[in-house]
Amino acid sequence: MDFFIQRNGLRDIYDKVVAGERISDADALRLLESKDLNAVGAIADFARQKRTGNNRASYIINRYVNYSNYCILSCQFCSFARKKRDADGFELTIPQMVEKAREALAIGITELHIVGGLHPSLPFSYYTDMLRELKKLDSRLQLKCFTAIEILHLAWLAKKSVEQTLIELKAAGLDSLTGGGAEIFRKEVRSQIAKGKESAEEYLDVHRTWHRLGGRSTCTMLYGHVESLADRVDHLRQLRALQDETRGFVGFVPLAYHPEDNDIPVTHPPTGFDSLRTIAVSRIYLDNFDHITAYWVGLSMKLAQVALSYGADDLHGTIIEEHIFHMAGAKSPQLQTEAAMLKAIREAGRTPVQRNTFYEPIRILETAPAAEATETSARSKMLEDNLATA
Ligand code: SF4
Fold first, then answer.
1. How far is the CA of 121 from the centre of ligand 1 (A)?
2. Which of 68, 80, 190, 220 to mutate to test the pocket of ligand 1 (most atoms within 8 A of CB)?
C-alpha cells in the first residue's frame, strides 16, 4: 500500500483519508489528474472499507420500466427521447405498466425503477394512478421513480408547488426519487449538452425538498463528454454540500457517457481507466455518502466488477429492460441474472448482499450453500425464460 501511495506524491491525501479528514477540491483534482490509477484505487478501497466497515458488495433485484419516451425537450446528449411524429415513440397505459410489474414480481424483484420523457399531454392523475395501481399489486414493492426534471414537469402540469407535488406522489406510493438528470452541474456545460433542462439549483432543490419530506434518493454524474475534470470536482462538491445539509442521498451513481446516436461531438468518450479513476475519486471525496455504485449498464459488467476494487461497493441491479443507455449505444446486455451478479461479486473477493432500494440488506450471502445456489439459479432461469418469451 505504502509503495503505491508514495510513488506519485499522493501521501498527503492518503494521510487525510486515514485520519478521517475531508479532502479538498484541489486534492480531488489532483487525484483525477493522477496517472497512477492503482494508487488512487488503493486509497479509494481503503476509504470504502472505512466507510462501510465490511467487505460486502450489494446488488438489487429490480426492473426498469419506461412509461413513455415522448419528451417535450431535446437534450443534445439524449438518444432516448422521441416526438409524437416519430414512428418509434411509445407510451404505456396503466394496465400495461401493471402487467410489466406483475411479470417482474413473479421473478422476485423488490424494486421498480420508473422514468420517462417529459410527456406533452399525460395528466398528473396518470402518474398518481399508476403509483397506486402498482402498490396494490404488492405493498412491499418499492417504487423508485422520476428524475428531478420529471418532478418539475409534473409540478408544472398539476399547477402545484414542487413540495405539494412530491407530497401527493408520496401519498400515492412513491418510495424514492431516481438520481437521473444531474448530468454536470456547471451552467456552461449544461447549456452545451442539455439546453432547456433544469438548472443545477433546480435539480438540487427537488432533492432537498424530497429529503425534507423524509424521502431518500440517489444522485448521479454523467461524465466523459465535454466537461473538464474541474467540472467533475465542482459537481461532486455540490452533491457533498447537499448531503451535509440533508443526509438524504443513499448512494451515488457515476454514469459513463455513451456517444452514439446523439448530437454532442465527443471524440474521446470515457475509457476504462477514466471510469475507474472517477469512481475511485468519488469514493474518496464523497466522505458523507454510504454507497458508491458501479453502474454495469454503462461500464460493462467486467469493468463494474473491477470497480469493486476501486471504491465501489454496489453493482446496481438486474434491471431486465434498459433502454436509455442502449439507445445511446451501450453494448452491455439489457439484464444481468442474479447468478451473474453473485459470481462477479464473489470473484472480486467480496460477500454478496441483496439489498433494497435504500441499500439496506435483504439477504447477506456469506457462503453459497447448495440450497441457496439452487434457488438463485432457479430465479436466474426464470428470468431468462421470461425474457425469452417477452
Ligand atoms: S434527457 Fe430527459 S429531458 Fe432531456 S430529452 Fe432526454 S428524456 Fe427528455
1. 15
2. 80
Express each pLDDT in 189-211 by its tens digit. Answer: 999 999 889 999 999 999 999 99
Of 329, 250, 322, the C-alpha closest to 293 is: 250
Whole-Å CA distances, 109 to 102, 354, 382: 10, 11, 12
% residues pLDDT > 70 (the chain) = 92
> Which residue has the least CA distance to atom 4 on ligand 1?
75
Q: Give the C-alpha separation, 232 to 234, whole Å.
A: 5
Residue owning grid cell 441457496: 372
Q: Tell me, yes or no, whether 3 lies in a domain.
A: no
Is residue 28, in this structure, part of any structural domain at all? no
- Does some domain include residue 17? no
Rounded distance from Cα 287 to ligand 1 centre (Å): 30
The 3 state secondary structure assigned to 20-37 is CCCCCHHHHHHHHHCCCH
Atom of ligand 1 nearest to the CA of 194: 4
Is the residue at 29 inside a domain? no
CA–chain centroid gap for 56, Å, is 19
pTM: 0.93
28, 281 Cβ separation under 8 angstroms: yes
Which grid coordinates belong to 390?
417477452
What does the alpha-carbon distance between residue 306 and residue 302 come to, in Å, rounded to a whole number? 7
Q: Do residues 294 and 304 make contact, with C-beta atoms less than 8 angstroms apart? A: yes
Q: Which atom of ligand 1 is nearest to the CA of 80?
A: 6
Q: How far apart are CA 260 and CA 329, in angstroms?
A: 5
Domain that holds residue 340: 54-389
Report the atom number in ligand 1 closest to the C-alpha of 149. 3
The binding-site residues of ligand 1, defined as CB within 6 angstroms of any ligand atom, are 71, 73-75, 78, 80-81, 117-118, 149, 194, 197
| CATH, residue 251 | 3.20.20.70
Instruction: Quote the number of domains for the chain.
Output: 1
Q: How many residues can be counted in the chain?
A: 390
